[in-house]
Amino acid sequence: MYLYNEILDENVFGHTKKVVLFREAIERVRSSKASGLLHILDIGCGSGYAVTRFLAKGQDKILGVDMFPPNIEYANSKFSDDNLTFSCIDARELLLDKKEFDVIVLADILEHLSSPQDILDTAMDLLAPNGRVVITVPNGKGPFEIESAISKAPWLGPALIRVTDLIVSFLDKYIVKKAWTSYANRTPKDLPYNIDNGHVQFFAKSEIIDIIKKSGLEIDTMRNLSFLSGPFTNYFFAPSKRFCKWNTDVADVLPHWLASAWYFECYKVKDRA
């Protein structure tokens, strides 16, 4: 079920900004297609809840693939229809059918892979002429990864999480009543999450650019997604729409090294030759 005319509220991670940037890239590709119909692939689509179901419109064909079975089971039960499908396969299997896609989405997936170069090479091989690969990835040295590392530090991490929980519980009960409770209730309780598939890559800007270019892709656009994010920022500020908007807006004027995550829009080098 497409939800192109809807979108989730922004969060501290810039997830809604990410979807908007993906849509803008998709429309740029659409403008070069005579039929206007696009084939879109979302590699590592998860449950389809946050990104996949918001991307396509009209008669676009979109396929989400993910290797975690509960994700695909959830996506198929909630969102699939004739034009929006989900499959629990390795994206490399699509090469056997000589598939091509006009837009390929890699949303927050490369940091989870032991060999991110392989999936970028696969995306390159699956990309149709004049198509786009759109990528989001955390800044491996940015605020998000720093907060995450602190939250996992022995003794300090659990202590800070406990203090944060106490402060938020007090605020939710006495100051901004039920703000955090209401926010938590927006996310479906049955939404699957692969807790065993954490980050194994912590890219510097030069590193992620290098592996993108090694695959035969060239970067057309790079953008910052958000400034502050991570478990503590999310816990304190998730209910605040004003903070979330400021957090994504200010990221646009910050140097790349200060962003929590980056967006890349890429094309085949030979398309511009």
TrEMBL record:
UniProt cross-references to CDD domains, sorted A to Z: AdoMet_MTases
SUPFAM superfamilies linked to this entry: S-adenosyl-L-methionine-dependent methyltransferases
InterPro entries, per database record: SAM-dependent_MTases_sf
PANTHER family cross-referenced by the UniProt entry: METHYLTRANSFERASE TYPE 11, TRANS-ACONITATE 2-METHYLTRANSFERASE-RELATED
Name of the molecule in the record: Methyltransferase domain-containing protein
Native source species: Thalassospira xiamenensis
